[in-house]
Amino acid sequence: MYHLNSSNALEYNHLTYPSLQKRWQTQPPQGELTGLSASLDSAIVGFAISERLNPQQAEIISLFVLPEYRNQGIGTKLLAYLEQELAQQGCVEIILSYSTSTLTNVALEPLLQKLHWQPPQINLVLGKTATEKIAQAPWLNKYPLPPAFEVFPWLDAGLSLPLSVEAHRLEPLNSLGLRYRGEVIGWVLTHRVAPDTIRYTTFSIAQAFEKRGRGVWLLASAIRRQVDSGVPYLTGSVSYRYPRLLKFVERHLTPYLTGVGEVRQTSKLINPTLESREN
Predict the structure, then answer these.
(1) Ramachandran angles phi, psi of 20, nearest 5°
(2) Domain limit, last residue, from 89, 117, 145
(3) What pLDDT, on a 0 to 100 scale, did the predictor assign at position 10?
(4) Is the peptide bond preceding residue 138 cis, with omega within 30 degrees of 0?
(5) Which domain holds residue 13?
(6) Is residue 88 part of a domain?
(7) 43 closest CA partner among 22, 17, 68
(8) What DSSP state is assigned to residue 161?
(9) Please, are residues 169 and 160 in contact by the beta-carbon 8 Å criterion?
(10) Residue 267 forms beta bridges with which residues?
(11) Mean pLDDT across the chain
């Protein structure tokens, strides 16, 4: 077992999936880190890491086995031992979020089922594309705004950000707000996640204007600015908690995406007796 921190954990980055180094660029660790390794002939062949979110809950943030040692039950044993360790520490529940891929379909999900985790639930739909592809969407040049509406650069207005949006790497090119008669009624906020890629982080429009195409025009305006700038790639995600926006994505964006995926989440109670006592 390893007691890790944000510095010494990176020594094992080559044994992490997803990459901790990449994760911590946008989501630094907040809680205690616990790591378990699997070794063969004194060489580490697998590694599992959890982060304590609060006294009762932890998250599995990495589970990795070297390709040549897979399909031998090593990942299953790693996760099972990590569950035991967290239970001994007084943890009640473990959660795990992951982006779907061929690897998660054939390796991770059967492993979770074997260890009696809850069936995974879809949290987010992920999409990516290139500007040359999205530029073909006919709705980019529809829905003109009446004079009472004004699109403005978010950073130029000096407004505070929504609580869930980080200021770091906020993209000035196409982070936009929308005003109606001087009042802010919507925004699309983006981040430069790589020199050639802009992530569309959050999109919101006041309910009274949802059915009038104002939000579509705002999103189209942000995309047009990126198309004109030459930044070639864009990514984004939509939560299943927003069915109207998800429906728009499926209808108007999906035909112009080069890749679509999902983020799923699952959980497991590892100390139900402790939970019942505290309740």
Answers:
(1) -65, -40
(2) 117
(3) 82
(4) no
(5) 2-117
(6) yes
(7) 68
(8) P
(9) no
(10) 95
(11) 91
Contacts of 99 (CB under 8 A, 6+ apart): 18, 126, 261, 262, 263
Contact 112, 94 (CB under 8 A): no
**55 found inside a domain:** yes
Q: What is the CATH number of the domain that holds 179?
A: 3.40.630.30
**Which of 75, 82, 88 lies closest to 59 in space, CA to CA?**
82
Under DSSP, the state recorded for 170 is B
CA gap 148, 55 in Å, rounded: 51
Q: How many percent of the chain have pLDDT more than 70?
A: 96
What is the tens place of the pLDDT at every residue in 136-159?
Answer: 999 998 878 899 999 999 999 999
Q: From 71, 92, 117, give the residue that closes a domain.
A: 117
Q: Can you list the positions of beta strands (E) in the chain? A: 2-4, 33-40, 43-54, 57-65, 93-99, 121-130, 149-153, 176-180, 183-194, 197-205, 233-239, 259-269
Q: Evaluate whether residue 271 is within a structural domain.
A: no
pLDDT tens digits, one per residue of 232-255: 999 999 988 888 888 888 888 999
Q: What is the SS3 assignment for 204?
A: strand
Contact 79, 115 (CB under 8 A): yes
Residue 161 burial (10 A CB sphere; 0-12, 13-18, 19+) = middle
Mean pLDDT value of segment 21-42: 86
Residue showing tokens 């998800």: 246
Burial track 89-120 (b if 16+ CB lie within 10 A, e otherwise): eebbbbbbbbebeeebeebbbebbeeeebeeb
